[in-house]
Amino acid sequence: MSRFLKPSFEKLVPYTPGEQPKDNKYIKLNTNESPFAPSKKAIAAAKKAAKKLQLYSDPECLALREKLAEIYGAKKEQVIVTNGSDEVLNFAFMTFCDENTPAAFADITYGFYKVFAAVNNVPFVEIPLNEDFTINVNDYCGINKTIFIANPNAPTGIALTLEDIEKILISNPNNIVVIDEAYTGLGAQSAVSLVERYDNLLVTMTFSKTRSMAGARLGFGIGNKDIINDLNTVRYSTNPYNVNSMTLAAGIGSLADEQYTKANCKTIMENRLYTTNELKKRGFSVLDSLSNFVFATHPKLDANELYLKLKENSVLVRHFTLERIKDYNRITIGTKSQMQAFFKILDKICQGDLK
Questions:
Q1: C-alpha distances in angstroms, 73 versus 79, 190, 193?
Q2: pLDDT per residue over 31-69, tens digit each?
Q3: pLDDT for 174-210, tens place per residue?
Q4: Is 346 within a domain?
Q5: Could you say which of 228, 256, 284 is where a domain stops?
């Protein structure tokens, strides 16, 4: 670090992204991307928008907000559009947390929450998951903090019910509850249906997973219009042109092709079931997932060694070094052929045929 870095950042531990190899030799099951290309309508819309890149993008993101409101049963005033859902999450830390209102999130969850808290100088508490990696809802009731819950959680894939989320909302009426739904559409119930009833709810989503647009960096939040106005105050104070024109257009194109998205989600869920069953046949324990990945452990296989052997044989999965989850690997759900190739290599490793 340079001598110019401000002291508050000297101990900052940044988020560690999944590996992004520069070649195509890997079966890439490590970063929860979709195995499918974006909708053709999204691609066509982005190409059309590229012809006007000499102009700034719409700072209000109006056309996309209107389409999102239509799809998710909200009002356009209840929607904010951001550069990935990470941006709206960061805005929430900036807007609704301070030394008097700390943040609260699980000890095993999306790693960026801790980074957002640190970079914004926000105090936080980590609430331990149960031994089975589920969330104890009672631990979040009446805690008087800004609550962040990934639902389904990452890297476990386990989801809360709407009844659980309502219990948390009702017991924290004077605090924002952020439900991070990065993996919506893959079996978990969305909390968007609760927005009209609870003015302290913010739901965040992304186009990265089920809509195959991770590289476009497009996310959004849905909540009470006053919450959205607060977030927009921060957005307009940092970067009012936060989403580029091609991405905005691609988002609208994607939303115009819901049949394609739903078909892909159906396939991912089918492949998730196939992957879970095949892992269990090989002696793995697999958590119940409602996301586009599974979290698996084996009683006789060292998770880190397995990760390294898979990588040596051109398969990438994600391994975490945190003590509670060091015996697990997270495996993104790919196409059926990708998962079959994964199991072929896994079997050779387990049989000692590959070094």
A1: 11, 12, 8
A2: 999 999 999 999 999 999 999 999 999 999 999 999 999
A3: 999 999 999 999 999 999 999 999 999 999 999 999 9
A4: yes
A5: 256
Domain count, the chain: 2
- What is the rounded CA–CA span in Å between residue 23 and residue 170? 49
Provide the 8-state DSSP code for 129.
Answer: P
Q: Is 195 part of any domain?
A: yes
Q: Which amino acid is at 226?
A: D
User: Residue 355 pLDDT more than 60?
Assistant: no
Tokens in use for 354? 């590959």
* 307 and 246 belong to one structural domain: no
Nearest to 167 by CA among 184, 133, 191, 203: 191
For 59-71, b where at least 16 C-beta lie within 10 A, e where not — what string?
eebeebbebbbee
Its pTM stands at 0.95
pLDDT at 353: 63
Q: Which residues pair with 149 in a beta bridge?
A: 179
**Same structural domain, 151 and 206:** yes
**CA 213/CA 251 separation, integer angstroms:** 8
How many helices (H) does the chain have, and how many strands (E)?
A: 10, 13
Farthest CA pair distance, the chain = 60
In this prediction, residue 172 carries a pLDDT of: 98
* Cα three-residue angle 211-215-218, rounded to 5 degrees: 60
Domain end residue (candidates: 201, 232, 256)? 256
Nearest Cα to 140, choosing from 113, 181, 176, 111?
176
Task: Answer for the pair 254, 38: CB distance below 8 angstroms, yes or no.
Answer: yes
Supply the range of the domain harboring residue 307. Answer: 21-36+259-350
Residues 6+ apart with CB under 8 A from 94: 120, 234
CB of 206 closer than 8 Å to CB of 221: no
Q: For residues 57 and 176, state if they share a domain.
A: yes
Q: At what angle do helices 336-350 and 303-312 cross, to 10 degrees?
A: 110
The CATH number of the domain holding residue 202 is: 3.40.640.10
> Looking at the structure, do residues 277 and 318 belong to the same domain, yes or no?
yes
Show the tokens assigned to 131.
């031994």
